[in-house]
Design goal:
The structure is a single chain. The chain has 151 residues and is an alpha+beta fold. It contains five helices and seven strands; from the N terminus they run βαβββαβαβααβ. The chain has a seven-stranded mixed beta sheet, with helices on both faces.
Length: 151
């Protein structure tokens, strides 16, 4: 089992850099509605994995986000554990449905039970989230691929 710890303001610059390198969205990372966890290397104290979610206003929907593993550690199952961790925390927070955007990692997300979903459906369910607002404002929403699963 992974020793994930909740990210704090002290971690924000390092988390942002890690997610930027992973080519993941940085919008709203400092928001209290975005729940992030990190995994650090015990020897170097460097972040090598992140996971998290952002809740809808009613708390019934969770946008899974920031699931990333350092390139040298990919393929060993850490990502699957990170995804499950984020979903478990979302359930604890009251979510009944998980959603995410992913243009590149559909096969990975299918391994943890996600199915293709309508981007507009995601945008309606999670209209208040930073990522949906950013994608709507920039026109990126039309180019995204949405995924969903019951929790």
């Amino acid at each position: 089992m992974l020793e994930l710890v909740r990210a704090t303001g002290i971690d924000s610059a390092e988390v942002s850099e890690f997610l930027r390198i992973a080519d993941l969205t940085l919008s709203g990372l400092d928001s209290p509605n975005v729940h992030l966890w990190i995994l650090r290397d015990a020897t170097t104290d460097r972040i090598f994995a992140t996971t998290g979610f952002e809740s809808s206003e009613d708390g019934l929907h969770a946008l899974i986000r920031s699931v990333a593993v350092a390139p040298e550690l990919r393929g060993g199952g850490i990502g699957l554990e990170l995804a499950q961790f984020a979903m478990d925390r979302a359930v604890e927070a009251g979510a009944k449905q998980a959603w995410l955007f992913s243009r590149r990692s559909g096969p990975f997300w299918q391994k943890v039970g996600f199915s293709s979903a309508g981007t507009k459906d995601l945008a309606v369910a999670l209209a208040s989230t930073h990522q949906v607002q950013l994608f709507a404002e920039t026109g990126q929403l039309e180019r995204e691929v949405a995924w969903s699963r019951q929790l």
